[in-house]
Structure formats: structure tokens, C-alpha cells
Amino acid sequence: MRLSTRATPAGSARKAAGSARSLALDVLDGCLGLKPRAAESLFDNHPGLGRLDARDRAFSRLLYASCLRRMKALDAALAAHVKKTPKSLTLLNILRLGAAQLLILETPPHAALKETVDLARAKAPHGAGMVNAVLRRLVGSRLADAAAGIRETPSWLHESWAQAFGEREADGLEAAHGGEPPLDITCPVDREAWAERLGGICLGKATIRLRDHGAIGELAGYGEGRWWVQDVAAAALVPLLGDVAGRHVLDIGAAPGGKTAQLCAAGARVTAIESSDARAVRLRENMKRLGFAPEIIVADACEWTGGGGFDAVLLDAPCTATGTIRRHPDILRVRKPSDAARMARQQRRLLEAAIRQLSPDGVLLYAVCSLQHEEGPGQIERLASDATGMEPVPVDATRLGGLPAHVHADGTLRTSPADLADEGGMDGFFAALLKRHA
Ligand SMILES: C[S@@+](CC[C@H](N)C(=O)[O-])C[C@H]1O[C@@H](n2cnc3c(N)ncnc32)[C@H](O)[C@@H]1O
Fold first, then answer.
1. CA 255 to ligand 1: nearest atom
2. pLDDT tens digits for range 97-125
3. What is the rounded (10 degree) CA torsion for 49, 51, 55, 58?
4. Which of 28, 131, 305, 348 would bridge with 93, disulfide CB 3.0–4.6 Å?
């Protein structure tokens, strides 16, 4: 018996169920459902991920990220062609995936239509005809037309930024979050040579920025542990501690280990503490690949009774991560106005634990990748009013390797995703260097 190589509709739908688009759909459904979960974790832990090759993985990630980043604009573009918004979240997400391929990723229309309709046949068969009709009508439209006057940032978030930084920067943040960011890697040794080999540019003190790249694990130098992935702004924080060579540094909230690696590369004796078992596994794997051997403790830093007397403590605290929307656009869709206050309470407990671990003349570097006042300046104001004996010491901005940063009157600092726009932007961090009163 000869088997036909032409896929039947049923065969195509079966194939679509295990495809890059299907995985992107599962991420959107999980992230935008009733119990929202972080998109990256849904993607990284998806059982189908291992069946995709590197190209399909990258496409799947780009597809769901594009939908989350431009969701309001995509919905507006679809609204012009849909009689009634589907009640099924899955069906709505299939439409978004189709629209993102046509209007953002410039996927050839025949491929975008066929693959998305096959996906609908597999995951929401009742709506496959509608998906076909709507996407056909969308071919040739421009997202810019539908997006006019639309702000992707929720209004409560935009207002919090306008209040903290002014309306102009809040608008700049909206613009900075609109596109796929470049890949930044930290390369502590032979940076120039690696930049040339990888086709990137040098930024800040130790970053190479790559605009076009293949799968990360297949890039030169990855397997040999010559560099690690880390946004240029994230990489600017550890140098604020000054020379840490030979000093005993406690790294609280260490996984996946970008800053742990920087501390090790700078010659510090590092104790890294991380509360999440799963993330500690990644931390260990990363340190092994990079050839570093920090002491790794899996524990809640607030309850850890070991240690004490550290020369320096780095507290890279869990936060709302609103400074990393470029890389994690799901933050736009899942954060609530009450989240910053909730995270600030957790950060306060961690700050108290960090202070307990310091030697009498030790320094504490507090950092969050958040733009929210409560988690940054508000946290430092509270430390002063709580009479913890700690006060900020001015950061030395010359240690930033020429990166733009906003240094405040009290010596604390923040980086803004609205800065470095021509080079592809940077994440938003708040950082404070603290010492005991004399
Ligand atoms: C912002 S991330 C750290 C990023 C990391 N420093 C890096 O540069 O790659 C915060 C980390 O703190 C961890 N964490 C949260 N609460 C913690 C606690 N109570 N004790 C220790 N680690 C904690 C989280 O699991 C998360 O891995």
C-alpha cells in the first residue's frame, strides 16, 4: 500500500497540535487564564519543548512574546473583522497568534493561514472556519493603523510611572516595550575578540550585544562557558560593590546566577543562597558550565541561621520585575496594582535578613528590576525611618562603564528602559549601596 505524502486535514491538525504555534498557544492560555502563570516558566517547562528544534523553539517564543507585547493592538486589528469576540480564550488566542504572524512577524500569508487554521482544527475545531475567514480578511492590513491611540501599558501602571518619572518618560517606557530586545551576554575575558567572533557590539563594562543570533546554546563560546546571558543593566550592578577580590560576599536570591557569576569572575569568595529548588538546579548548572564554584545554599534567606560576618551582601530581591517588560511582556498582562506593595513586604523581610548577615563595616547592595516606587526609593526611605542603622552611600557612577543611569540625591540609582533607545534599550533597575552609620 502506498501512503500519500500529502497531509489530510486531520493529519495536518494532528501535526499542528505538537507544533511551535501550538506551544505558543499553550503559553498564552496559561498566562492569560484564570490562574495566570509566568510565560517563561510555562514555556521552559512545557512537555513539548524538547520535541522542537532550535529554530522552532525560537519562533514559538517570539510568537507568544509578540502576542503579549502587542495584545491590545492585535485585538483592535481583529475587532474590525470579528462579529463577536470569541468567549473561548483558546480561540481568541489562536486569532491573536494568526494576527501576530501576519501583522508583526511578516510570516508569508499562506503559511500563517494554513498553520493557524490547522491549529484551530486541533485545539478549537468549532472555530476553525471563523479563524480562516477572519485571518483572510486581515491579510494586507497594517498593525500601525489599528494601534493608533492604543497604549499597551495598563493605565494604573502608566500612571505610577508618570507620577514617579514624569509623563515623558512614561511614554518613553511604552515605546521601549514595543519590540523584541537584543540579546545581551556578559563576557568577562577577551570581550573584544568574542564580540568580533559573535558579530556583536561592546556595551557597558563587560557586555556584548547581539542583534541577530541563532539558538543561544549553539553560539560560539556558550558550551565552553566563556559568557552568560545577562541584560546590560543587570550586569552594571555588581561593579557598584567595587573591588570584591578575596572578599566574602553573600548573594541572596542568586538564581539563575548572572550576578553570582560576576562576583566569582571578580575573585570574590561567594556564598549564594536561593530558595527555589528548581531555580537552584539552574544556578548549579550555570555555575558548572562557567567553571565557577560558589558555595550554594538552598534555603529561605529569611530563615537561614548560618553565615554572618560577610564583607558584602548582594540582595537582588524578588520583585514585580516591571523593569524587564522588554524581555517579559507577560508582566503587562498579569501584574495587579496591589503587587508592588505585596512584593515590598517580602523585600523588607529579606533586607532585614541581609543586614543581619553583614560584618560591622560590611556593605549591602540592594537591587530590584522594578520601576515601582514602593520597591525602590520607598524601600530605602522606610529603612531610614525604621532606624535600622543603615543609610545609602553614594554609588560611584564611573563604575557603570558609560551606561546612562539616573543617580538620585541620596546616592541611589536607577536605570531606565527608555534610555539607550538607539542601541536597543536596557532593563530598568533600582540599586542602593548601604552602610551602617558610623
Ligand atoms: C531577581 S531574581 C535573582 C536573579 C539573580 N540574582 C541573577 O542575577 O541571576 C530573585 C531570586 O530570589 C529568589 N528568592 C525569593 N525569595 C527568596 C528567599 N526568601 N530566600 C532566598 N531566595 C529567594 C527567587 O527564587 C529568585 O531566584
1. 27
2. 999 999 999 999 999 999 999 999 999 99
3. -10
4. 28
